[in-house]
Specification:
This protein is α+β, with helices and mostly antiparallel strands and 304 residues long. The chain is 68% helix and 8% strand. It has 2 domains: 3-53 and 169-302, no CATH class; 55-163, 2-Layer Sandwich (Alpha-Beta Plaits), CATH 3.30.70.3040. The protein has helices spanning 3-16, 18-55, 79-89, 106-116, 145-152, 165-207, 209-217, 222-263, 272-302, and strands spanning 57-62, 98-104, 134-139, 158-163. It starts with a helix and ends with a helix.
Length: 304
């Protein structure tokens, strides 16, 4: 099989169907950009989970004078009840699960509240005594938070035991929905790209039906006839894949590194190295889909 003849046939098909080739490039570019974005979002979610879950705390909220819980019938937690909670945290039973803990009194809670809601009218309506005194606990294994919840639920002076991971789960569910939406759109666009590539190949083959007939008469093999058409589809898809890879890198460089990262330095965002890892995946997906769809089109519809 002479490569020069195969490439000459592929080049002829590309020149004859420039508009269709451009369409394939654009559809592949858009669909693979969605694929790359979805992959980056999943990588980002994974990084955020590893970072925030390891830092998630269990909050043991003590009773205030206004608490309505059954364990708060005596009013605000007294010194004896606080000492009892601290004793449990330092006990031999719970110590193996706890990495560190600290106590936040009314004034510290009030200062943090004022800082969090600075400029909000709500901040002016709250007094220190209305905010819970809290034991904040970091666990060695955040997934074992149920141990603390069971240990302190029903304890006199304790209004509520809250695992912060439940708030993180809600955030990650929203991020996952956005990621799956991007994946769904990408899948639809990839289907459109596959159909467009197959249509382009059929039109290219139809316009060269006389040449194909001559090649058959002189004994050309099916593979020799098929290969130029497959190369047409792969060539178009590779250009679209390269553009998609460039778009993914640009999104990370300009939007994430250049805009989001400086605004939220406490978040561990994906970076250029992660984007570079995604680019070969996009190239592989584009080439494989193009080759398979082109091969199917030329076999199925021209019956070579």
């Amino acid at each position: 099989m002479r490569l020069s003849l195969i490439w000459q046939e592929a080049s002829t098909g590309l020149r004859r169907n420039v508009s269709m080739v451009i369409s394939v490039i654009l559809v592949t570019f858009i669909s693979l950009t969605f694929v790359g974005t979805a992959v980056l979002m999943q990588m980002q979610i994974g990084q955020m989970k590893n970072y925030w879950y390891d830092r998630a705390q269990v909050a043991i909220y003590l009773c205030t004078a206004d608490s309505q819980a059954e364990t708060c019938t005596a009013g605000a937690a007294n010194e004896e009840q606080k000492a009892g909670v601290l004793g449990q945290l330092e006990s031999e039973t719970l110590a193996p699960f706890i990495d560190k803990s600290y106590f936040e009194d009314h004034q510290q809670a009030y200062d943090n509240f004022q800082q969090q809601f600075e400029g909000n009218q709500l901040a002016q309506l709250v007094a220190p005594e209305q905010l819970n005194e809290t034991y904040w606990v970091n666990l060695k294994d955040p997934s074992q938070s149920e141990v603390l919840v069971e240990a302190f639920s029903g304890t006199p002076g304790v209004e509520e035991v809250t695992d912060q991971r439940q708030y993180l789960d809600a955030i990650f569910r929203v991020l996952n929905v956005a990621s799956y939406t991007a994946i769904g759109i990408a899948a639809l666009m990839l289907i459109a790209a596959v159909l467009l590539i197959a249509t382009t190949i059929r039109l290219s083959a139809y316009s060269r039906r006389k040449e194909i007939g001559i090649m058959r008469l002189v004994g050309a093999s099916n593979r020799f006839i098929q290969t130029p058409f497959i190369l047409e589809g792969v060539f178009s898809a590779v250009i679209g894949s390269i553009l998609a890879g460039g778009a993914v890198i640009a999104i990370v460089y300009f939007f994430i590194d250049g805009y989001l990262a400086p605004m939220m330095p406490f978040v561990n965002f994906v970076d250029i190295s992660d984007a570079i890892v995604v680019v070969p995946l996009l190239l592989l997906v584009g080439m494989v889909l193009a080759a398979l769809s082109a091969n199917f089109a030329i076999k199925r519809y021209l019956k070579i």
